[in-house]
Design a protein that fits this description.
6-stranded antiparallel β-sheet; 8-stranded mixed β-sheet; Dna Ligase, domain 1
């Protein structure tokens, strides 16, 4: 197929590269002429290899992490294919196309897979390219080698790890006239490192681009401000060699003259021309940032490829139109849950915020506080940062909770484009003022006279009363649209208790900060951190201890332990016939009655709860029971931690001069011990109320399924709340199947992209500071629980599928209360995300295990079986020994 004949629906025939080049050529961009050998030719070719189906069977069975196996299998498949001649019909067509384009030209022969240069996966560099091909025989040989390169070991592993089946990918081959460039390189229309959509980056080297992409040279780097055209950064590379074509075919690597190695490859005019080309290509693709390959011959630019940049995190939706740059913080990071959230889940969180309203229609109009990006929720924090008092408060909190985020924010705040953002609207300020005006008085009461020993019991009653009122109001309405409306209305008011809870938590945080400053550099500094062990009143800790109690019921009964492995769909009835079974089943039912609404990623209403799927709980109980600890060991351990915390409290008080100072320190110590524990109560309240909303939603969905208007109950999580109410209201309406399918696909795609904690409306992600004393190969994060521990890493991505052994170091993407049972055996914690007050950090401090959180990519860089040193004081994770062979 000539480029001019390639249409928008020809991906399956010409592959990603071929389709892009055809689209660019038809749009009038300067693309060297060429044609594509289609996937039909590939299918004819592999059909002539009798062993090919057997090789596919072996590839399908390959472990995605088996590098040696991929290398061995790939070489075998390529050898088998290279022994097969091209079909005679293909050779005839290839000769005709070659003649039509010109047999005297040199050609680039480039692989173009059907799963390549796509919005969700680029597959860049996975298959082979051959340059400066001349003559009929060399062209046919290059086409055959391209076909075989679909099975390079890197391509095999990339497909396996990204969920692309080897049987469902085919290869086309682009044959394109060569241009003989003076310079070549890559252009990104957005900064691929920071994500900034207004920064264009260019890498440039001499000769063909192979020297650059092959890593033979350090290219020049040009970073261009797309708004002004100014070069923001120019970094000259050491361009020692250049790859150039030979007259008879093939290429040669030549030394670059000394006076050119550190000279600019591109002058200002060439940079401006490339920037203009990049902007036009991006506009052609609807504003999607592009990765371009280009060549420069004299002053003439040629475009030899364009593909979407798949590594960028999506921009927040519903961006403000005030012409300024806004700053967004990930809501999931604050909740220590970075998974994507279902559409219904995101919709309901927008009902909750901003807090302070008593009716849904009190939400201020205009740009919203909560926006979607990559199927996650982000909070627009710009208005709060525009007011001096709230700016100081937010930075103070962030420095205590997310120090690296605070450092990143400071670098952004003084930019004129950020300063131009609007201040908080009066309506929003009135909501906050109406809700929070009593907080300063309550805070003073906490510091000066409140009976601190009763704070946890008081918080328990407050939450229980609010949940009961919520349940009563929702249940008063008939099932269907009326109950759905009532549930949403009640959700708008669920956090009206925050003015009562907030002073307790804030007083604990402020007291901790004061004690740290007072005892910094003294012999008692360590006692301030020990003070946080065994905090009073943490509902998540109590839940975890109850899981340990369940394990104690199983431990003496081997048959019961074995029976847990065979439980399916949460049906425990068969366990009653086993020794110890009745007591365990009754205790487990009581546990679910209190905590069954909890679960992994519980801030998403669309995720199963323990009451729906207790697999994680049962797995954790089996793991605890199988280690043979003495009954009650977990409670003894927690009692010891409480004793350590109380002893530290006494030492801090005793180290203070008698009089007002000692009274004040004693009060601060009590605030830490008795107030920080209520940190989990707001979330505990919310998940209980969420469960009543969830019940109303599921009941409506089940009714719709029975009526044939919704295909499956779980489809309901891919509707908005208004769409669900409209369905419940109209007995003739059908659920939008295509919309549900598209949203489900978006959510699955979003699982594979890593959300940033902070991002601007231009897509920029502030770079994290790296400690100066970071050992080579170590990971840096936030030291969230002091101490140093060495142990074997256990990378856990799904807590329902893995058991942590005693003494192992838990390496996780995040932890929320659904992960808490794993902490019983953890000797240390490493988390991709987290701050000082997120779930994993608090639990680690209470359990006295060293923790480093916010390392970014620990679950990708670390492997189960490695021996690690986790330094929770310095925020450093070191690999001491690799996985044993």
């Amino acid at each position: 197929m000539p480029f001019a004949h390639i249409g928008s629906d020809d991906l399956s025939r010409v592959g990603g590269k071929g389709q892009n080049l055809g689209a660019l050529a038809r749009a009038g961009f300067p693309v060297p002429p060429g044609f594509v050998v289609t996937t039909a030719a590939y299918h004819h070719f592999v059909a002539d290899c009798p062993t090919f189906p057997a090789w596919l069977d072996r590839l399908d069975a390959l472990d995605p992490d088996d590098l040696a196996g991929a290398r061995e299998l790939g070489a075998a498949v390529r050898d088998a294919l290279l022994a097969v001649p091209l079909p005679s019909a293909l050779l005839t067509d290839l000769d005709a196309a070659h003649q039509a384009l010109g047999i005297d030209h040199a050609y680039a022969v480039r692989s173009s897979a059907t799963a390549e240069d796509l919005p969700g996966a680029s597959f860049a560099g996975q298959q082979d390219t051959y340059l400066n091909i001349r003559g009929r025989d060399e062209l046919a040989s290059a086409v055959r080698r391209c076909f075989a390169s679909l099975f390079t070991d890197r391509a095999i592993l990339y497909r396996a790890r990204n969920g692309f089946g080897h049987r469902h990918v085919a290869l086309a081959v682009v044959v394109q006239q060569m241009v003989i460039p003076d310079a070549a390189g890559i252009l990104f229309t957005a900064d691929p490192v920071t994500g900034h959509r207004r920064t264009l980056t260019i890498d440039a080297g001499y000769g063909l681009g192979e020297a650059l992409v092959g890593g033979l040279v350090t290219a020049d780097l040009y970073r261009v401000d797309r708004r002004t055209g100014a070069i923001k950064e120019l970094r000259l590379g050491d361009k020692k060699v250049a790859v150039r074509p030979l007259s008879g075919g093939g290429t040669v690597t030549e030394d670059v003259p000394e006076d050119m190695r550190r000279a600019r490859v591109l002058d200002d005019a060439a940079v401006a021309a490339l920037a203009d080309l990049g902007a036009r290509v991006e506009a052609h693709y609807g504003g999607v940032p592009q990765d371009l390959e280009w060549c420069l011959v004299g002053r003439e630019l040629w475009l030899v490829q364009a593909r979407p940049i798949t590594s960028l995190y999506p921009l927040p939706e519903s961006l403000p139109d005030d012409g300024s740059v806004h700053l967004y913080m990930s809501f999931g990071h604050g909740q220590n849950m970075i998974d994507p959230i279902t559409p219904l889940g995101r919709d309901l969180w927008r009902v909750v915020f901003p807090i302070g309203k008593t009716r849904l229609d009190e939400i201020p109009s205009g740009p919203t506080t909560m926006v979607d990006a990559g199927s996650r929720i982000f909070l627009d924090i710009t208005p709060a940062l525009r007011l001096a008092p709230t700016r100081r408060l937010m930075l103070r909190i962030l420095r205590a909770v997310y120090p690296d985020v605070a450092a990143g924010l400071v670098t952004l705040l003084d930019r004129p484009e950020v300063q131009a953002a609007a201040r908080p609207r009066p309506a929003a300020l009135r909501l906050v003022a109406r809700l929070m005006w009593t907080v300063p008085f309550d805070l003073a009461w906490m510091f000066l006279g409140a009976p601190l020993e009763r704070q946890a019991a008081w918080a328990d009653r407050l939450v229980a009363d609010r949940v009961a009122a919520f349940r009563t109001a929702v249940a008063a309405q008939p099932p269907g649209a009326a109950r759905l409306r009532a549930a949403r209305h009640e959700l708008t008011q669920v956090f009206t208790i925050m003015p009562k809870i907030a002073p307790r938590l804030v007083s604990g945080l402020l007291s901790l900060g004061r004690l740290r400053r007072r005892f910094a550099g003294t012999a008692r500094a360590g006692d301030v951190e020990t003070l946080q062990r065994g905090l009073v009143g943490n509902v998540t800790t109590e839940m975890d201890l109850r899981v340990g109690d369940l394990a104690d019921l199983v431990r003496p009964h081997p048959e019961l332990l074995a029976g847990l492995a065979h439980v399916r769909d949460g049906d425990l009835r068969a366990l009653r016939d086993l020794p110890g079974g009745p007591a365990f089943v009754d205790a487990f039912a009581a546990f679910l009655a209190r905590f069954g609404m909890r679960g992994q990623a519980e801030i998403d209403i669309g995720r199963p709860r323990w009451a729906d799927d207790p697999t994680l709980l049962l797995t954790s109980i089996r793991g605890m029971a199988s280690h043979g600890d003495a009954p009650g060991k977990h409670r003894e351990h927690f009692a010891a931690l409480q004793a350590e915390g109380e002893a530290a409290a006494q030492r801090l008080v005793a180290a203070t001069t008698p009089g007002p100072a000692r009274w004040w320190v004693r009060r601060q110590v009590q605030c830490v011990r008795h107030c920080l524990g209520v940190r989990e109560h707001p979330k505990y309240l919310f998940v209980q109320c969420f469960e009543h909303v969830r019940a109303a939603v599921r009941a409506a969905a089940e009714s719709l399924v029975r009526a044939g208007r919704l295909d499956a109950v779980d489809d309901v999580w891919f509707l908005t709340y208004d769409e669900l109410i409209a369905l419940a209201d109209d007995p003739r309406a059908l659920a939008p199947r295509s919309t549900i399918a598209a949203r489900r696909a978006d959510l699955e795609h979003a699982r594979h992209i890593h959300p940033p904690l902070l991002v601007t409306s231009e897509g920029e992600i502030p770079e994290r500071p790296v400690p100066k004393d970071l050992p080579p190969g170590a990971l840096a994060g936030l030291g969230a629980s002091a101490g140093v521990v060495e142990g074997i890493a256990h990378v856990v991505l799904d807590p329902a599928a893995q058991v942590l052994r005693a003494g192992e170091i838990l390496v996780a993407p995040y932890t929320d209360p659904g992960w808490t049972p794993l902490f019983v055996h953890a000797a240390g914690l490493v988390c991709d995300v987290g701050g000082m007050m997120t779930h994993g950090s608090v639990i680690a401090r209470e359990y006295g295990i060293p923790a480093v959180v916010g390392v970014g990519d620990g679950t990708r860089r670390l492997k189960s079986g490695q021996r690690l040193r986790v330094d929770g004081s310095r925020g450093i994770v070191e690999v001491l020994a690799e996985v044993a062979p």
